[in-house]
Every structure is written in C-alpha cells, then in structure tokens.
Amino acid sequence: MAAKADAQAEIDRAPCEVSHPVREFTRRYDECTQHVCAGAFARTHRTTKFLRGELTVNGTWLVTGSGGLLGQDVLTGLREAGETATGLDHKALDITDAHAVREVMAKHRPAIVVNCAAFAAPDKAENDEEGALRINGGGARILATACAEFEARLIHVSTDYVFAGDDSGGVAVPFAEDAPTCPVNAYGRTKVAGERAVLECLPETGYVFRTAWLFGAGRTNFVRTMIRLERERDQVEPPAAPLCAAAHRAAARCASS
After folding, report:
1. Which residue in 13, 50, 125, 178 has the fewest CB atoms around it within 10 Å?
2. Is 187 a catalytic residue?
3. Which of 29, 161, 187, 207 is catalytic?
4. Between vectors from CA 48 to CA 45 and to CA 53, what angle results, nearest 5°?
5. Distance between CA atoms of 4 and 12, rounded to whole angstroms?
6. Torsional class of 182: left (φ above 0), alpha (ψ -120 to 50), beta (otherwise)
7. pTM of the predicted protein model
8. Domain spanning 29-256 has what CATH number?
C-alpha cells in the first residue's frame, strides 16, 4: 500500500513529464468521481474569444483523427474557409506514440492542433477501459505535451459524457462550462482524463470543446441510426432503467462531495 502511494505521489508531482506521458492514465479509476467532481476545466472566456476571432491564429492547422466523422468535417471546414490545414488519420498518426507525435509536430510546425482522434465507442469502452484511457487520456496528454514544446495551441474535443446527465444537471437545463463533471461510465471517465491533461499541460493555450449528438456527411452517426431504426422498428426503446439509476446515484455522490 505504501509503495502504491509513493508511486501515485510521483505521478502527481510530474503531470506533464515528457518521458512518462501515459503512465498516470494506465491505472484504474476506482475513485474517479471523487476527483472529477471538483469542477470542470473549460476556459470559458478564452474559448469565447477564440470563437469570436479575437484570438487570431497565423499559421497552419493540424487535425488529428481526420478520418473520423468529426475530423473529416473539421478539415473540410477549415479548407473551405481558406485556412492551410493538414489532416492525419489514425494510420498516419497514432496519438499514443509520443515519438511519432513529436516528429509530426517538428515536420508541420502547426500554429494550432485540433484533436479529433479518440476512442469514441462508449459501449466498447465498458469492456476495454484501459484501451480507451490510453487514447482519450494518454493520447491527449502526449499531444498537449508536444504542443507545449512547439508552442502550438490545442483544441481538444470532449463530450457531454463527462456529466452524469440527470435532471439536476443538464437534461432540462443546459450544462454550464463550470458545471461539476461526474461521469457514470468508462467512456466519460476517460474523456475527463483527457480534459484534465490538456488543461494542466496547456493552462493558457489549451481549449476544451464539449460536443454531443454529432452527425455529418461521413460514417455512421446518431441521425442515420435513428432513421434506420425508424424504418426497422415500430418503437425505439429509451435507455434502460439501470443506466438512469446509475446516473442519479453518481449525481448524488457529486452533490454530497
């Protein structure tokens, strides 16, 4: 037990250490909600300025995960807006490979990186949380570390799964950027880890954008799934009761912490 505590203390002392960018994310998150319910990490004022164009970017863009649903549209949108943007899919860049990430940053020297690379399958994450954590948490930290070294800004895409999703937080009322995070599943926990990593390593030049219900021209998405189910079934069932109960229990833990 003492050895485990010593190891954890070492990890906490060096959250952005280049030589061990993934190690703090390889442990299990047994006490996850105790840590992530302290507050969200989005930098609202800087994000708003960025969206309004008050923080200008002179230079090129790099989009990771450009082969995915979001990455495809982000890359297309940037190019249509006249920006110089390079897209790298998983085959071209594995964000969990620190050496490869650093080589890409040195080659392209982007002014801003948009991280669309993710383990984006919540159901599969339940059976492979370690694998999801390696990408969503460790990969995000590797990118953030490289961006800090090469003085690039980083836009990191997160998710509404970082919240419990109960009525007190955001079903009836939208979540605020500073609402307490309290994930109820493996996918949400790994995405919280990514948010923490980006904003710890890049406190002034890291941006977290939380998204939900993405759809677009490429690949399978929620809209296409609902259209398919409408054709195949007479009725589409809501989430199972145990899942809703888990969300409420997690929200209660957040409220009492």
Report:
1. 13
2. yes
3. 187
4. 125
5. 12
6. beta
7. 0.72
8. 3.40.50.720
